Amino acid sequence: MKIIVTSLFVQDQDKALEFYSEKLGFVKKEDVPVGEFRWITLVSPDDQNATELLLEPNNHPAAKEYQKKIFAEGIPATMFGVADIRKEYKRLMEKGVKFTMEPTEMGEVTIAVFDDTCGNLIQIVQK
Question: What value does the mean pLDDT of the chain take?
């Protein structure tokens, strides 16, 4: 068994697509109409056949509540791995990404957390 798609609730699919592609550098893989919403997935530019990130609309009340509560508690919705966290932090800061935690060493890993402007905190990690 293999993870092929993981989803992230977003408040606005268009805004999320713009942020994740233009600011973070992910590549759009799928963008298919599904009723009033779309099936939008993105992949890492370094491995376009790897796990896809689905930008899932948070239109269901449970999804909205979940997203609000974990954000309010400062809990990242997901985590992305980076090779050089300080370099990535600088690159994202230059693109206007707002961090809630700058790179911080935690044992054998270094983490940082940013706001994706779509209702989520996202953690990046360097192992």
Answer: 97
